[in-house]
Amino acid sequence: MADTRLRTPLGRALGLGSAKEGVSHWWAQRITAVALVPLLLWFVISLISLTGADRAVVVAWFHMPFPAIATVLMLFAVFYHMSLGIQVVIEDYVHTEWLKISVLVLNKLVAFALGAAGIFAVLRIAFQG
Q1: What is the per-residue DSSP string for 3-68?
Q2: Which of 16, 36, 39, 62 is in Cβ range 3.0-4.6 Å of 74 for a Cys bridge?
Q3: What CATH code is carried by the domain that includes residue 116?
């Protein structure tokens, strides 16, 4: 009851906290975590089954639609989830405002660059002639 007394009527109605973002960041991190469980299990099992295979077999595997699409989804979820997690750590432990903003931007750029590179690599293998 004490928690609702400290919030404005509009804040209670909208369900938003002081940052005005609600729980969208929390939900995004949980959804990507749940999505990563089957994707990573599938990917690890697939890599184990491809152990010892030559390059042509692995390339042929990536030419199939499901492995290519699932790997792209996994890479997107991995780097988005990573970025969300690192963002929380930065926001909690970096107290100098200019440094916090700089590192947050760097976090997003690095996650985007790594994700784009990984997705490009998968698509290049999947669509090579």
Answers
A1: HHHTS-HHHHHHT--TTS-TTHHHHHHHHHHHHHHHHHHHHHHHHHHTTT--HHHHHHHHHSHHHH
A2: 39
A3: 1.20.1300.10
Full residue range of the structural domain in which residue 35 is found: 23-127
Virtual torsion, Cα 32, 80, 55, 50, nearest 10 deg: -20
What gap in Å lies between CA 52 and CA 74, rounded to an integer?
Answer: 23
In a domain, 4, yes or no: no
Digit-coded pLDDT (tens) for 5-56: 676 777 666 666 566 565 888 999 999 999 999 999 999 999 999 999 999 9
Q: Which helix (DSSP H) or strand (DSSP E) does residue 100 occupy? A: helix 97-127
Residue 83 lies in a domain: yes
d(CA 88, CA 104): 10
Count of domains observed in the chain: 1
